[in-house]
Amino acid sequence: MFVSVGVRFEANVEALNMVETAGNYSKHRRVPYIIEEKNVLKIIYVPAVSGESLAHAFQELLAEEAISEKQKVCRKCLRGEFLKSMDEENAAEKFDGGKLPSDAEKLEEGIVKNCTVEDIGGFLYAGKPPVKRTSAFQVSYALPIKKIAIYSTVEPQLHARHAVMTEAGKKTGGEREGAAEQMIYYVETGTAIYGFTFNLDLRAIGLSAITGKPIIPEDELRARRRAAVKSLARMLSSTQFGAKLSRFLPLGGIVSLAVSVTEKPFTLTSPIYEGFEDMTLKRLEKIAKEFNEQYQYYVLGRNGLETPEHVMTQLIQYLKERNTL
Ligand SMILES: [Zn+2]
Fold this sequence. Notes:
alpha+beta; 9-stranded mixed beta sheet; two-stranded antiparallel ribbon; 11 helices; 29% strand; binds zinc ion
């Protein structure tokens, strides 16, 4: 089963993805973006949230869900440090006595068995022999939707950090010390309706990327798939992704959501386009007819799916009925 999710969310005053700090100025990520104006194509720069940032949030939630599904997660992944099995040192804890096998298949097997996050999120072991496992999920950048991309903004907001001055400080050159204690800083904040796509290939979980055979037993495969779908649901429901949430928790929320489930890989029409829900449906219908394949499709606001939670629980229920979870 292959799950594809298209999300649109409104975010007013967000600092979800900061890229650099120059002095007291923190910059928001910006990317070039194609728009059409009066039949002329143009490039503008818009605020964006990277796919890495979204993937990080998903994998943090995945580590948690995997543990509640009684699946193994390595120590670093559990702490949200996704260095993964990049070298001998980071791979060692997955093998008895920290001794790594010299065979690529055995290496992959040991890592996948002992860490659900690396099974689902992939890893790149750069030792000898090198082993690469492609991630079972794919995520795009979050970019402003086409219709209002031109109105998306990045604005610096001024903030000040104050400290109470001590009596001693006031007497001895208080002015200078006082100035140091009142620091001003700027944080660039973005405002836009963002869209992003998230694909999850449930067929790849727990399977060897080298031999294509299952590495873990069927009940554990199901538990891991469950953990993956639940973390996706949790990510959308909690909006726990991106940085600076402690003081710049964006105001807004999910405004559109569509989820397709297919037998083979299928990515729904990008949510940056107007009418992406209907366009996706047309494509799904065509594929179902021509390739004789089944599909499921859920859209927020249709068929009684009032909230993102309704959509995601419907998805989970369907996958359970199909014995995938
Ligand atoms: Zn790990």
